[in-house]
Specification:
mainly alpha, two-stranded antiparallel sheet, two-stranded antiparallel ribbon, 14 helices
């Protein structure tokens, strides 16, 4: 590996490692300040990794986190902040649940229909923000935050009994989906089942890397994110790229809730997971928008979620995991900026050394010519 490549890998790894180290230290300080052991809670959570049922829960949870983080990462690569992934995935899951409860076709047609429904719903919802940004210059942050609130109201409306809602006790649901839309899991014995759509998450990650790094569209997307002015000068339409990025981001976001919908709950109810879209922001940041980095970040977040309940049985508050997630996000921002500055200084020193070496060599050549 070339020296330049080694430095690039070092810079890519240094940020997340520093962020995690700082987050662990700060979490330990919080525990110490509250009069509790700063080490035992982490030891208890690490111990949970040895249980197969917890491992299955972590993988299942990480699949949803991974898809949501990919949706956020696409926006980041275009220098867009799609904070509306939460509303997009919830609406996508609900519409898929509604279609799955009212349409019954063979599985070969039913499953693609549900996937397409989720994708189109998420893309439509994010596309609203994209159109507003391109045509009216409305910040995608403001637009997607407002759309999240509207999505909540739309879901509440769709839950009405005279619309698509089905009351089950005190729970609002969309009714159970037809079995042709269920996706069987991967049996893991007594540990349970891994969601079948974990494979979809893996395929999305591969597709994300190929599109961004091996296609003209991906190059235009990254170029537009780096500098829309420069991209426009090279013939790229910045408005088209903004809209395309928002549509793709929303389409992927619409799939984030489907692993659990099609693999476990088979209905959209009040118990359906929420907040995954917001967690995807921190996961994408920690993973540096890399499909491989996001895998590890998603697994870390899922581990914090699924291992923390054990703390309640030992006199610790499981909210320490939430505190740590927040500290990771804060540490990521600080550490990445520090690493970036460090990388720039190293690059400046290297360029300066090369220029100095060239100047000395030039002076020596001049002396040799003059001596002749």
């Amino acid at each position: 590996m070339k020296k330049f490549d080694k430095e690039r890998v070092l810079l890519a790894v240094a940020g997340p490692v520093i962020a995690l180290a700082v987050a662990f230290v700060l979490s330990a300080i919080v525990l110490l300040a509250s009069g509790k052991s700063p080490i035992e809670p982490f030891a208890l959570m690490f111990e949970q990794l040895g249980f197969s049922d917890i491992q299955v829960l972590i993988i299942n949870q990480a699949s949803m986190y991974y898809i949501a983080a990919l949706a956020v990462a696409i926006g980041f690569r275009m220098n867009l902040f799609n904070i509306g992934v939460d509303g997009q995935y919830q609406l996508g899951a609900m519409m898929a649940a509604v279609v799955g409860a009212h349409v019954n076709m063979p599985a070969a047609l039913q499953v693609p229909l549900l996937l397409l429904t989720a994708v189109l719903t998420g893309a439509f919802w994010s596309g609203i923000a994209g159109v507003l940004k391109v045509t009216r210059g409305v910040s995608e942050v403001v637009a997607t935050i407002m759309l999240n609130a509207i999505a909540t109201s739309v879901i509440a409306y769709l839950w009405l009994p005279n619309v698509f809602g089905v009351k089950v006790g005190n729970n609002n649901t969309t009714g159970e989906m037809y079995e042709s839309g269920w996706i069987p899991g991967i049996p893991m014995g007594d540990a349970g089942e891994i969601y079948g759509l974990v494979l979809l998450a893996a395929l999305l990650g591969i597709g994300y890397w190929i599109v961004l790094n091996r296609t003209r569209f991906g190059f235009d997307l990254r170029a537009s994110g780096a500098s829309q002015t420069a991209a426009a000068a090279s013939g790229v339409d910045p408005g088209r790229m903004v809209l395309s990025a928002m549509l793709i981001s929303g389409g992927i976001a619409g799939l984030a809730g489907l692993p659990i919908l099609l693999g476990d709950t088979h209905t959209y109810s009040l118990n359906f997971p929420t907040g995954i879209g917001f967690l995807g922001i921190g996961i994408a940041l920690l993973g540096r928008n890399s499909p491989v980095g996001i895998v590890f970040a998603a697994l870390l977040w899922a581990w914090l979620d699924k291992a923390s309940p054990e703390l309640d049985f030992h006199g610790y508050d499981k909210e320490i995991a939430v505190i740590m997630q927040g500290l990771i996000v804060l540490s990521v921002v600080v550490s990445y900026e520090a690493v970036r500055e460090w990388g720039l200084r190293r690059q400046q020193r290297r360029v300066g050394a090369e220029l100095a070496a060239g100047h000395v060599l030039g002076a020596q050549n001049t002396k040799e010519v003059a001596g002749r």
